[in-house]
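Board notes (copied after class):
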Amino acid sequence: MKMTTLIISSLALTSLALVANARDLGPDEALKLRDSGSIQSFEKLNEAALAKYPGGVIRETELENELGRYIYQLEVVDAQGIEWDVKLDAATGEVLENRRDD
């Protein structure tokens, strides 16, 4: 029982540490990163996300720095009205996560 509690506590602390290391970037900082070539253009990133959802619409976007990696997060509503959370590596455009929003 003690070992299980210790493992659960350790996992919870690790999760909190990862969340604490994510930082939202403001518009000015995001534009500087784009202009410097550190991240792809927002148009290319949006196209990469929408490629999976023809006829879809982007509702929200956010750029974060997670442990030194720039992550572009989008909320996409597909043509059937289903909401999707999509995460892209902002430097490469690689889809890191693509899941239905509950």
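Comment from the instructor: DSSP finds three helices and five strands in the chain. The first helix runs from residue 2 to 20.
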